[in-house]
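Q: My labmate handed me this sequence with no annotations at all. I'd like to see what the chain might look like in three dimensions before we decide whether it's worth expressing. Could you predict it?
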Amino acid sequence: MFPSIKCLSTDSGNEFLTFLRVRPSKDKDTLAFRGDTSQEAEEFIHEVNIRAFKTGKLKDQEWITTFASVSFAGKALRWYRRLPRQTRQDWELLQEAILEKDWNNDENSSLG
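A: Here is what I predict for the chain of 112 residues:
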């Protein structure tokens, strides 16, 4: 499951090694939402909801918003970080914000 292992640090006195397991970029357990198109936004919401359902977390707002938050990348991540905290912590509000955003537009466009 973790094909790459990198040594981060050593404590030569105790001969203690700290390792970071690096997942392959095509990890099926994670999502990457870059915000390239509105269709990608819809597919992202759908996939988050499916994964929440499959793990029995569909009603767990904290789990869903945390899972979604680690999936933002690129311009979607910059957009997400500018959202009000209330929106980032409420899956219903976050879904609305994602769907209202014109992802096909320039990355420098406003929040909405």
